[in-house]
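Changelog note: in this version the structure field was regenerated for every chain. One regenerated record is shown below for reference.
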Amino acid sequence: MRAEGVKVPVIVIWPPPSTDRHQQYQFPIEKHENQASSEKMTVPISQSLSATLEVPKSCITTPSGTMMVTSDQLQSELSKFKNLTTNASFPAHCYACRVKMQRLHEANEKWRQTSVELRRYRKIAYDWERIANEREWRWRAYAQMLQQTLDSCRNAKESERIEPLGAMKALEALCERGTLGNTSDDRKISDTLARRRHEMMEEQQKKWREAVRRFEEAPVYKDPKIVIRTALFDPSRCNGIPQHVRNPTGSFFLYRAWSEKQACRVDYSKEWSAIKSSKTDEYWEWKNRASNISHEHSYQLSKGWIWVTTRKRTSENGGGRVKRSTIM
């Protein structure tokens, strides 16, 4: 049942549908006004898409017959074909796809650069291998020549033997440094390195001699009393301290010789109490030295340059647990 007041477009198909389904799509186009006759000509639709934009008529011939459409519909349909392009880019990807594509491009570029570097390093390795082979064959040639010379000297008669001095000179000339597998550039570099190594060794020996001289001439080690106290204890605390400064060589033997001269064991606490009560210059000297050593020891512990280790119970240390500082 059709509603009232509603306009329904009517499409008139004429002539009747054709039975030939392979008939080409055609539609009539009127000639322009400047042309003489007004007869209609029929052209394929593929050749007249652009020409139909100016045609006011809307008669389209189809295999089913002639179809009548409005000019607006025809213009809109043909404008779609007109704006169609064949070199369209890829459709917009999602964010994850774009990130994956970017990473793939970066990986491809990195792989390309890696392949270039690989070829370059392979060439360098090949060149060095070639040089090594050449030098190896040169060494082998010299060794073979030397072996032949030695064999000939060994197999020669007594009257034909070469003098030992001449043979040694020939051998020294043959084995002279730089002639066996070394080029002139390598010889220059090796000579420079050897000269620099010799200079550094001489400088180190000079520094070592100067350090030994200063150590021997230091006035603090002339007094055995200071050596003994340095090796034994921290006077402000009367207990053993880890020595982060190396004691002079033989300090313990000096203390042992000094203690053997004493009639009995020295009571360090009483000795320090006497010095402390007197408040002499010696007291302040030991007091400042003890505080400086304590501060330096704490600083090195905080820096991690030394650390505290605990020894296990053994018969050597009397079965007790002793904490000692270890020098890195």
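Spot check on this record: The chain has a mean pLDDT of 65. The beta strands are 13-14, 26-30, 40-44, 59-62, 65-68, 306-310, 323-327.
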